[in-house]
Amino acid sequence: MNPIILHIPHSSKLIPDEFLNYFYLSKNELNEEINLMTDHFTDELFGVSLDNVTSLLFPVSRLLVDPERFEIDKDETMSEVGMGCIYEKTSHGNKLKDGSKIRDRLINKFYRPHHKKFYDLVKSKLDKFENVIIIDCHSFPLKRLPYEKSEIKTRPEICLGTDNFHTPEKISNIFFEEFKSLGFSVDFNTPFSGSIVPRTYYEINKRVISIMIEVRRDLYMDEKTFKKNETFDKTKNALSKVIQTISNTNV
């Protein structure tokens, strides 16, 4: 079986008390923004119990620091809307926090340790196996938020994010066909694109395979109450089936 790493970066809502004073939002406003931006329950949704599958969760909210962004703003396109690795703006373009005062602290405390764990985990798999498959685990709202660059009106139930270097066509096609066979609408890189790879291996080592799965939130939760809905287990089981299939595929 292929070694699989489930990278789960946006499931946490935690903002430690020591950083709350740096936010411009009231407590209620901050809670609302957390609810809009969190990939709710993705730690549970992608909870696959297989010996060859390892999960890596980021411990704090993306509103504090986002491990999916490049560390340096000039390398990160989302910094154009105030959402580099240290968010300065909300999903609606309003002031979020004064990141300049705590940028180095946040990067050293959360960002770099997470990426070190990520690199170490990938390396440990490459030391033992021919390849490693990273699945970047996300969710997205039914309706577009203002910060999003994609303006498509019809959003698929499953978005598969690919990378020209790290996502073999065979792998992306298997994911696509598996989700289609289970009755989901699927599209590539719509409304979000790409998939994470440790910087050390990025566009260097093709043994590191990566694909992103974005699940539309109405498939598994109520976006008004932010609670699981009646189809949560169905969606979770479908994800487990697809991941199990890919774990047994000769890549």
Q: Remind me, CATH topology?
A: Aminopeptidase
How many separate domains? Answer: 1
Classify the oligomer: single chain
Cα-atom radius of gyration = 18 Å
Which parts are unreliable, with pLDDT below 50 for 5 consecutive residues or more?
none
Q: Using the alpha-carbon principal axes, give the shape.
A: globular
Task: Strand order, main sheet: write it out.
Answer: 2-1-3-6-4-5
Average predicted local confidence, pLDDT:
96
Residue share in β-strands: 15-25%
Largest sheet: 6 strands, mixed
Structural class: alpha/beta
Distance between the termini: 10 Å
List keywords for this structure.
single chain, 251 residues, alpha/beta, six-stranded mixed beta sheet, two-stranded antiparallel sheet, 5 helices, 27% helix, 16% strand, globular
